[in-house]
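Supplementary notes for students who missed Thursday's class. We covered one full example, reproduced here. Read the sequence, then the structure, then the short commentary at the end.
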Amino acid sequence: MSIKNLQEISSLVTNYTKKNRFVEIVEEDEGESKYLQLIRGLGEKSWQNEEEAIQGIYGKQLGDKTFAMLKTRAKERLVNMIFQLDTQKRFKSSYDKAYFLTCKNLLAGTVLLIQGRLKSGEEQLKLALTTSRKYYFTDLSIVSLRFLRNINSFSGSKQTFGKYNSEIKLVMKTLQAELEAEELNQELILEVVASVELKDNWIEKVKHNYEELQKIVEKYDTYSTRLNMYRVGIRYFDSIYDYKNAIRLASECEYYLKSNPHLIQRVRLGEMNLNKLYGSLHLRDYINGSEYAKTCMTLFNPGTLNWLIFLEFYFLLCLHTQNHEQAVEIYLQVINHPSFNGYPPQNKEKWKIFESFLIYTLPEQDKMNRKFNIPKFLNEVPLYSKDKAGYNLSIIIAQTILSLKIGDYEKIVERAEALKLYANRYIKKEKNPRSYYFIKMLLVMIQYDFDPKKTEQIANKFFIKLKESQLGMQSELESLEVIPYDLLWPEILKKLSVPQV
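Structure (token representation):
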């Protein structure tokens, strides 16, 4: 097991009180053995890799076998501590607490049975079964029922045996339905993650899976089947650009959870509000979208990846609805957070791109505008420029509009050939209609020497076709428009009409 994996386990059992659990362990043992030094160092995050850990504990290099044995011993102690977690301090939702306690009761009951403590073992298994029924822990129900049926086969009670036996058969059917529901959702996730480009029958496949899930829920209405149905349904409506129905379905899932408060998990509520915010972004619905964003703010811990994703959607919504002051606040909130420097380079680069579009929208006298070095950005080659399937087009557009902002038309002309080559290679009219027509409009602008009247007149046919293509009608690999092209183009024409000094 690697140091990183040990640190993950350690973070679970050491970070929930001011007095960390690894301190308590040290107090239990005399002296400071090597493995306790390892546990202490894991809790304090003293090392980045195994070499640093070995040097810190032993002060010299060792053979692989010695340190491997030390890690094994430390891992056993840390894993044992998982079963001692304080549910009130570690788990925030009743659902998570119930799952943890059910597993503990199930394990305790099993161990007691193995040791011949039948009565006490049966009692623990009944506790596990009760919570499993309430919270739809179907797989745990089956394990509990199997042991309880076995106990009663020796008791001679045909009635009790028959009750557990019948329930096992029913729960097995429910479990099969839940497994099918999970498969219908997970195979779509796999295809999105693994495929370079989604197949032409993608929408039909999502629709089929959604319809199958609706049938499953009609017959086996459990937390698992419903959650998978909602997820696939939202994905289906997003894929056909029906964002109103995607929001409706996310709201329906949220209502279901709130109607069953024992099933509520913050992460699930956050997931549904994130889906609603995404739909609002495409609908350019700032009023409702900002409310969903406020809810997300209460559900996602600052600095986490989900927090960053929701603020990305909220930032884009502000730009898409011309709420520039709010966009500035969001941008500053992200880049000034202590976690920002720790994000992967691609995430930080994305917000650099966002900043460039934000600068374009701000007046000349704005403080952020004065601090941003436009010439430096125009000459940089950001990380995404190596990623043709990412935000590369956004970089090209940002560099173009910022060149317009400062009146550097020569820089735009210099890049005209590169823009043509990029468009011919990566932008297809059938899959990327809005980007395709917008690039055509930019090339018209360059071809007619930035003449505002000629540019507007000749590019108008492309502008009409662009507006006929709904926002979001891009391939899965195409980045979202940071500023929608139909909002950006009139601003470009307006800047072209301003006489150059």
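Commentary. Residues 38 and 145 are 41 Å apart (CA to CA). Confidence is low (pLDDT under 50) at residues 16-31, 473-478. If anything here is unclear, bring it to office hours.
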